[in-house]
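Marked as duplicate of an earlier ticket. Keeping the data here for the record.
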Amino acid sequence: MYVYLYDNFLRQKKYENVVKAIEIRLTDFGIAGKILRLNNYTDVKEIIEDEIKRGAKTVVIVGDNKTFGHVLSRSATCNVVFGFLPIGKDNSIAGVLGLPVGVDACDVLSRRKREKLDIGWMNNRYFVSQLHVMPSDIEVSYDERFKVTSKDKTELVVCNLQPFYWNKSKKEDDFVVHPQDGKLEAFLRPLTKKKWWGYNYEDPSVFPFEEMVVKSRSPFVVEADGKRSKEIKIKIKLASGKIDMVVGRDRRF
């Protein structure tokens, strides 16, 4: 049994044709199922767990990067197969998973090629694609062996599924993360003050790790899979479980 979680933005008229085409294709493949619509107040994990009790075997996220993060940051440890049908422009995660955007993603879903993916954990919430600490005066220690500080601000990006592209002159294939290697990848980028105003960004140091602690004397902004919060101290590590995800043969890992 398939359950499809539609993002609320798909109600807009400009998505009407692609949504209808997707539903027809899913019916042709014999994998149409129950449709549930999400909003900001939806308890995604509770909904998915209820559908599992009713016999759901596959939960398909229908939307964009934000939808993907919203669902999986809350339900990553649910015992079900996840799929993704990307719609819209903001869908860089689709390329990593080897999924075309739009109707053709139904073909990938129908083949049910699956991979187990690592899950990140930060202060009692999950993230699957990426965590971003905005430039701040932070101290970073990882794997209980290394400690990093800087004279000025530092930007930190922790990647699991989605790479961090800091240099637009590089090709996407130059930066690959491995969401199956039992580690997270950290990009640590110091900033130095310019002579008059603003900051210069240095190239980041890149390293894999299993557990990291980030702290500061003042609150810093953290964004994990699209959800922002202010923190004084965070612990980042791999969660114990994995996501069972439908992927395409052209995935980038």
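See parent ticket for discussion. The CA atoms of residues 6 and 37 lie 5 Å apart.
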